[in-house]
Amino acid sequence: MLSTGALRAHLLAVRLAGAVATSREASLRSYRLFAARDPRVTIGLDPEWDWKQSDLIALMAEKCGVSADSRHTSGPDVIDPDRTLVALDAFAERLAEAARNRSPVLLGTGHPHRLLGFYAALADALSAAGCTVLTSAHGSCVDITTRFGLRTYNLDYVRGVALVREPGARGAGHATGAHTHSPLPVRTALAAAAEAGGPLPELVVGDHGWVCGAGQLGFEAIGLGDTDDPALFVGEAEGRVSVVVPLDDAVRSDYYRPLTRYVLNRACLSQ
Fold it and tell me: Residue 20 and residue 238: Cα distance in Å, rounded?
């Protein structure tokens, strides 16, 4: 089993935590947009509280370890690896509970190029433990507003993990997919599951709009969040997201493999 110390060293070595690639400028811009309730940054969450930029800086300092000084406006952002480890343990505990209860689960990612392998390993382990891994709305069209205008994407599943891909992209089952923060894919999947008479997920696992969109609709959700993803941490603070793991969500895909081993071991799901 990968030790906590070894994983902590790995987080820092590959910049999953510590000084990360996400810039302070990008994070502050996200906090400003979230405070203005810009849907590009709220990503499916309808905040109950009035969040000012200063409130968000304080929250992200508490949850991630970023600088709490509003005068700090440039350079790489920072994630405290110890906060990442604590959240990973809580994340693993929730997966273990789902496995014990054989709960239906839904997994989805807006970072398929980076995080598909991480979620796919969780899907495999949960399925082996007796959980139903849902694939509702497979093949459905999802219209998402992007900076290039309204684009239609196709909802696909790879090894039990939902993602969207542009029409004309490589066929179903391939690991390529589109990067998106939108909550519309998870809303589409949940609506289809409901219309089919269930089962509905008792746990949603993912990132971006998959977590916030599910949490907003009352589904328990856990996931990964970067320093420029305040919506996930606001959802956690307001009680609509159960666990958010602070880390850089866009490093090389193989850098997440030690996290996969650690989480599966902590959840007693290693095969």
Answer: 26
Helices (H) then strands (E): counts for the chain: 10, 9
Tokens of 89: 């343990």
- Facing residues of 206 across strands? 108, 223
Q: 169 pLDDT band (50/70/90 cuts)? A: low
Query: What number of residues does the chain have?
Result: 271
- The model's pTM: 0.95
The C-alpha atoms of residue 271 and residue 81 are separated, in whole angstroms, by: 27
- What are the b/e assignments for 13-28, b being 16+ CB within 10 Å? ebbbbbebebbbeebb
Secondary structure element (H or E) that encloses residue 73, with its range: none
Q: pLDDT tens digits, residue range 60-107? A: 999 999 999 999 999 999 999 999 999 999 999 999 999 999 999 999
